Amino acid sequence: MGLLSAVFGVSAPAVFAGTPKENEDYSFRRVSGRINCEGKGLEKVVVSDGFSVTQTDAKGNYVLEAHYDARFLFYTLPSGYEIPNEKGIARFYMALKKGQKQQQADFSLVKAKQDDTRHAFVVWADTQIKTEEDAQKLLTISAPDAHTHIQKLMDRPVFGIGCGDLVWDNFDLFKDYREAVAMTGIPFWQVIGNHDMDYGARTDDASQESFEAQFGPSYYSFNKGKVHYVVLDDVFFIGAGHRYIGYLTETQLRWLEKDLSYIPQGSTVVVALHIPSNTGDKRRNKRKEEEMGGVLTNRKALYELLKPYKVQIVSGHTHWNEVWEKDNITEHNLGTVCGAWWSGPVCGDGTPNGFGVFEVAGDDISWYYKSTGYEKEHQLRLYKPGADKERPQAVIANIWNHDKRWTVEWFEDGVAKGKMEQYTGYDPSAAELYEGAALPQQRKWIEPILTDHLFQAVPAAGVREVRVKATDRFGHTFEERIQL
After folding, report:
1. Which of 177, 273, 304, 439 has its CA 20 to 30 A from that of 3?
2. What is the DSSP string of 324-361?
3. Is 380 exposed, middle or buried (0-12, 13-18, 19+ CB in 10 A)?
4. 153 φ, ψ (degrees, to nearest 5)
5. Quick one: CA dihedral 8, 9, 12, 13, positive or negative?
6. What is the pLDDT along the chain (484 residues), one digit of tens a residue?
7. pTM across the whole model
8. CA 19 to chain CA centroid, nearest Å
């Protein structure tokens, strides 16, 4: 019995798009149903099979001619309703049966207890558990820490996004991921990552089967308050080994175009995907070409569809933290829950293990990074002179969620000295933990990662204390002091 059979009680498709089989039925299937709340039909709820998109009528009814390759019928959750979930895992879909000409898919929604115009969401990038030891760290350290912090946000609706690489090729550990989600006390939407895919598939078309058996479709949308959320699958398996590229298929782009046609221009749209649409890696490492598995290769097509909106992109994959913005887009390539693959307390760029927190008020979104084991005020780390062998005289500050709208000032024994100098280099903690194969970390291949959210200042002789004051784009101030 396949995974789809075990979870949904239906036969897993034997073939997928582009793999014709003699006598297979390639005709469309008629799917109809009703979406209601307390027996009353809900009008204008968007429904899709991942190819076509339609809406419910005034009585909550819909009819859709499902594509022969469609595996699910799902709806876009309207604002003002609870996220349907099973122990925290979002459930908003029905598996479609191959060869069945008429299918019924009805859904009952529950009105939200709180107004969701103001809400919050957290983003777990790369929980990426490979062993039982990794899973225990997630369950005993990261998930309880997230639960404690989430409780402080519960004066409004809160949900989570698992931003891919939920596990590390070990699908038996999906159960531990689900347990960790349940511990947070909030519902989670899931994104597929490169380590959540079936590499035994012969093409990308079948590589989502194990993920889909656990979490449903690999791309979809939902609404919360005034914000439209889109989850995309940008990990494209090229059919050889464990090789993939960052790429959105034409099928997905066409679906997104239809999905966005229901969203008024000027709205705020949040896009969640695993591989970042873009990063500064090529610039920092002075590469001639970008790594095709490290960024979304056809991102221009995505950006074109998103042009009419105010866009926030959340992504994972890199195991560093970076915030960039251009035109109407801000991207948060988030530091990871697992840090450097569960081998230490920081990512390769020195960002602490942790997750992103986004607070939404109407059309506006603010954010911060929550480090595991720390309060939200922990937004920078200082190092004494000598910590960085390339800059032995300098005090170093790592401000992991820095973007171009932050200001970073420093003080000698209380005297203002102006702005610190930003540079590209290696975080001293990451270098100490991960540089060189002889170090005792769990995974010997891990190395520190170049980052440009580092700052330096050389104090004068005899100075006893350096204080660094960092102010984010929202006017929040964070300070750290170091005794020399």
Report:
1. 273
2. EEETTEEEEE---TTTTTTSSSB-TTSPBSEEEEEEEE
3. buried
4. -105, 0
5. negative
6. 333 333 333 333 333 444 445 555 666 789 999 999 999 999 999 999 999 999 999 999 999 999 999 999 999 999 999 999 999 999 999 999 988 899 999 999 999 999 999 999 999 999 999 999 999 999 999 999 999 999 999 999 999 999 999 999 999 999 999 999 999 999 999 999 999 999 999 999 999 999 999 999 999 999 999 999 999 999 999 998 999 999 999 999 999 999 999 999 999 999 999 999 999 999 999 999 999 999 999 999 999 999 999 999 999 999 999 999 999 999 999 999 999 999 999 999 999 999 999 999 999 999 999 999 999 999 999 999 999 999 999 999 999 999 999 999 999 999 999 999 999 999 999 999 999 866 655 688 899 999 999 999 999 999 999 999 999 999 999 999 999 9
7. 0.93
8. 31
In angstroms, the CA 281 to CA 322 distance is 10
* Number of neighbours of residue 464 by Cβ within 10 angstroms: 9
Q: Coil, strand, or helix at residue 483?
A: strand
Coil, helix or strand for 171?
A: helix
d(CA 175, CA 155) in angstroms, rounded, equals: 29
Which two three-digit tokens encode residue 198?
């079936």
Structural Rg of the chain based on CA atoms = 23
Residues 308 and 300: beta-carbon distance below 8 Å:
no
No. of helices (H) and no. of strands (E), the chain = 9, 32
180 and 190 Cβ atoms separated by less than 8 Å = no
3-state helix, strand, coil in the chain (%, to 5): 15, 35, 50
Euclidean distance between CA atoms 220 and 424, whole angstroms: 37
CA distance 33 to 73: 10
| Bridge partner list, 41 | 36
Token pair, residue 429, equals: 């903690």
Sequence-separated (6 or more) residues with CB below 8 Å from residue 267: 226, 227, 228, 309, 310, 363
| Rounded CA separation 123/315 (Å) | 9
In 10 A of CB 115, how many CB atoms?
12
Q: Count other Cβ atoms within 10 Å, centred on residue 393.
A: 11
Q: Which of 59, 58, 56 is nearest to 73 (CA)?
A: 56
CA distance 84 to 108: 9
